[in-house]
Amino acid sequence: MIDLTGIIAISGQSGLYKVVAQSKNGIIVEGLADKKRTSISSTAKVSSLEDISMFTTGEDKPVSSIMKSIYDKEKGGACIDSKADDKAVAAYFEAVLPEYDKERVYTSNMKKLFTWYNTLQTTGNLKVKESDVKDETTEKIVKAAKEKKATVKKTATKDTTKTKTSTGVKKTAGVRKTGVA
């Protein structure tokens, strides 16, 4: 998966932006290509790249995993130009994501994805997240350690019998109550 946190696309404006801060009336963003900071109104339509997904024949596929497939195919390099022929773009996209829904994913969607990928690649914002495999193995190790600790606690039992006096009152250790405040 590609790390797309904080990267947004703004409807009506070309390019990708990185969220810098929040202002009173919206957000302050910085263009990835030109590094110019601008204020975006809270009424503007903003889409976070990590929330966007594409239609497939099964479950929808997030853009970050599709970009990871492109990254693996190109070994971190740039992908096909978005201004290439429509048939070439469709063929390249099918090589990257063979199970995409051919009726609902348009060539314009593919071109926009390739534009975003190339923008992230040229600006140096194309970062791969830590692999989920490492997270799963870490969780398994932690779980095994907890289970081992729990079995050790069960085997080492304490003597919990309470000592009683002849009158049936539990002995207390500590400060004696004298009745004076």
List keywords for this structure.
alpha+beta, five-stranded antiparallel β-sheet, 4 helices, 7 strands, 35% helix
Structural features, described:
This protein starts with 6 loop residues before the first strand and ends in a 26-residue tail after the last helix. It is of the alpha+beta class and 181 residues long. It is extended. Strands 4-3-2-1-5 form a five-stranded antiparallel beta sheet. Strands 6-7 form a two-stranded antiparallel ribbon. The chain has helices at residues 63-74, 86-96, 107-123, 132-155, and strands spanning 7-10, 16-22, 26-31, 37-41, 46-48, 53-54, 61-62. It contains four helices and seven strands, in the order βββββββαααα.
Q: What summary fits the major beta sheet?
A: 5 strands, antiparallel
Order of helices and strands: EEEEEEEHHHH
Structural class: alpha+beta
Query: Cα distance, first to last residue?
Result: 68 Å
Beta strand %: 15-25%
User: What does the average pLDDT come to?
Assistant: 80
Shape verdict: extended
Radius of gyration (Å): 30 Å
Number of helices: 4
Please state how the strands of the largest beta sheet are arranged side by side. 4-3-2-1-5
* Helical residue percent band: 25-40%
In short:
With 181 residues, the chain is an alpha+beta fold. It is built from 4 helices and 7 strands; from the N terminus they run E-E-E-E-E-E-E-H-H-H-H. Strand 2 (16-22) and strand 3 form a beta hairpin.
